[in-house]
Amino acid sequence: MAGQESLDPDRSMWDFIAVELRRQRRARGVSGASLARLIGRDRSIVSRIESGRIPMQLDHAEIIDREWGLDRLFTRLVRFAKERKDDEWRLGDLAEQEARATRVRLWEIGLVPGLLQTPDYARAVLSVGLVRDPDEAVQGRLSRQAAVFDRERPPEVSVILNWAVLEQPVGSADVMRGQLARLLELAELPHVSVRVLEKSAGVHVGYDGMLELLTVDARDLAYAEAPHGGGLVTDPADVQDFEVRYDRIGNIATPAGSSRAVIHHAMETCR
């Protein structure tokens, strides 16, 4: 978990913003709770901004600059940070956000999403050279799954899979059958929906790449490989663009009940 001691304001603009916010707040004798009220958010939001776990939002920067008379200091810093592609803010860790999410929405174009992969399928994917230690990576993926599905109150999970996910061989036929059986098992859970976008849908906005939408602390975040080059997105306008794309994909996806039949057929044809 990130903290003030791990920030490097000489390297990262986002780290500089986090450190400077804390310095400005303390210089004014303002508590974290007071700053949270100023920007209309929970106290934990201020703590996470100052520890580097989440970035300062532009609207919050504008409020702070106005109320503290900073002549658009934080507004400029946030704009500069957002424009620097070589200084992408890490939002801590995707798995950390998934573990806290109350809602998860997934679209995948070519592979079963990591949150739904069986150990054998994950090992087959990770063994092609994506990581140095596939076994360690598989264990990390299983821990990520447990943090989502094994909670006392797991999140609502909505998954849309491109038809190619079902037809792309990964590992042996047994590995694929086991993976598809796992999808059917998850689809039976009351808080999980799995739908398939069939080949007949033709070309659509989903071909821009996979995406994941998370609802954390009543706020939506997005993770996508394109068009933003990969990483977590927090700006509300950008997140809304991803939500619109997800909805358009969902509008042409096969309903959940019929999708189970599609997955079952794919499992039966694995040879």
Describe this structure in words.
- This protein has 271 residues and is of the alpha/beta class.
- The protein folds into two domains: 4-87, 434 Repressor (Amino-terminal Domain), CATH 1.10.260.40; 94-268, Endonuclease, Chain A, CATH 3.30.870.
- The chain is built from twelve helices and six strands.
- It has helices at 13-27, 32-39, 43-50, 58-68, 73-83, 94-100, 119-126, 134-149, 163-167, 173-187, 236-251, 256-268; strands spanning 103-108, 156-162, 192-197, 211-216, 219-224, 232-233.
- The chain has a six-stranded mixed sheet with strand order 3-2-1-4-5-6, with helices on both faces.
- Helix 1 (13-27) runs antiparallel to helix 5 (73-83) and helix 2 (32-39) crosses helix 3.
- The longest helix has 16 residues, at 134-149.
- It is elongated.
- Mean pLDDT is 88; it is low at 86-92.
- One of its GO terms (molecular function) is DNA binding.
